[in-house]
Each structure stands twice: as C-alpha cells, then as structure tokens.
Amino acid sequence: MSVVPANIESESLAVGSAEHRRLLGQFFLDTFVDYTPEQMQWPQLADEELARLRSLPFWQEAVSTENVTSNTVAAAAALEADPLVRKAIELQGFEEMRHARLLVELTAHYRIPIESPPRFTPRSLESDFLFAGFGECFDSFFAFGLFALARQSGFFPPALVKVFEPVMQEEARHILFFVNWVKYRRAQLPWWRRPAFRVRCAWIILKQIASRVQTARSMGKPQPGGSGENFTLTAHQDLGTEVTLHRLLDLCLTENERRMAEYDSRLKRPRLVPGIARFLFRVIPARTRK
Questions:
Q1: DSSP element (H, E) containing 2
Q2: What's the whole-model pTM score?
Q3: Which of 28, 198, 259, 283 could in theory staple to 172 by disulfide, Cβ–Cβ 3.0 to 4.6 A?
Q4: What does 244-260 look like in DSSP terms, one character per residue?
C-alpha cells in the first residue's frame, strides 16, 4: 500500500482544481488493500467467545446496510465524467460489497442466522450517494470508537480483531474520499447552482442527525426485531463492558485522528461529526453513563 505521508509540505490545494481531482482519485487507488473474504482464515473461538459473538443483535442490520451502501456507491460512479475519480468510486463500491461479503462469510462460518437482503436499486444517483456518504460519516466515526472499545475490553479475541482491522481503515478512506468528493463536486457546479447543492447537503445532514437523535433517545429501550437503524450508535450497549458516553466520544475522537493521520494532509478532513463529538465531549459530564 502506497500512502503519501500525512505531514507532506505543499502549497495550498484549491478545492475542485485539477490537482485536487488527481489527488482525490489517486490517493484512493494507491491505498487499496487486496483481500478475498471467501478465502479468509477465521480463528477458532472458545465456546464463551462464540456465545458472545452470536449474542450481538446487529449482524442482520450490518449486512443490510452494507448491501444498500455498496449498490448506491457502485451506481454513483455514473455521476463522474473524470475517469480517475469514476474509477475510485467504482473501487469504493467494490470495497463496500466486499464488506457485505465478509459479514456473510463470518455469519456463515460461526453459524449466526441472517437473511440475504434484496438488491437495493438507487432512485437518484446523487441524492442517494450523498445520503449514504453522510450516513457513513456518522456510522464510521462511532464504529472507530466501538472497535477500539471491543479491542481494549477483550470482547473480541485478538485474531478476530485483526481480521476486521483492514475494514475499519477502509471506512476511514471512504469518508475521507466522500468529504473531498462533495467539495470537489460543488466546486464543479456553476456558481448559481452551488447554493441549492449546499441546501440539499444540509437537509440530508439534518435528516441524518435527526435519525441519530431519535436513536439516542431510545437507548436502553427494547427494539423490536433487533437493534434497528444506526446500530453503531447503540452497539456499545452490547459489548459487555461499562462505558460512559464521555469515554466513548473520547475513543471515537482519538481513533478518528489516528486513522486519518495516515493520509495526505492536503485532503480535507471530516469536520462535522468530529465537531459535534467535541462539543458533546465538553458539555457532557465525564460520569454520565449511557
């Protein structure tokens, strides 16, 4: 994997410029990691470890989410006229589907029952891609902290953590690519279309925030049929360890910084979700549990 050092010195990179477009596409292609879910060597788990794994309620939702995201991203490649950026989006669609395949392989190997989700057909390429991308910005941010929590607590054995480490880093690449793509896409529009694009993005973000707020308010209440949507926001309740929301936010912020640090600093970093998390981290008492 070829990664440009994050502390590279360069002139200011204009968003939407030819250099920004080239860096956006090339960074994603250069950091691709090749692995095949169907050839994965799954570790043997002790009875207690297997019982913990099977007890987690979000496997169906995880597979369904990856199925929707992968089909949405793959279709969104048609939005791009630039061959390099289009190839990067196609690769992201492949990686999202690979995540779904990996989860299917895991659940099959450890005999965790799930149903195969129906193929999702995007209705509006750009709007669906924006909705999926902003949703992934929220979900991946919390997944970084949850993964660190599971690793530190020993809930998952180290061998299984190692299997999913490339997946977590791919999610960091995905949201970094998406944030820069949104800025690049907006810069390509005529000036008179940019306000409408901003409003559409803001509306989608508000819908994502409202969905997470609703999920947060329902924490601790029984959810029919499993964990439901936004499972990354509630999954810490299922990891068998006490954690305050303050501590979880701290883990999410730390892991987000660590994972983003691997990539070229000229790429714009996600600011919205980390910004919300930093605000909550400051105002929520450290002893608050949820």
A1: none
A2: 0.88
A3: 259
A4: BHHHHHHHHHHHHHHHH
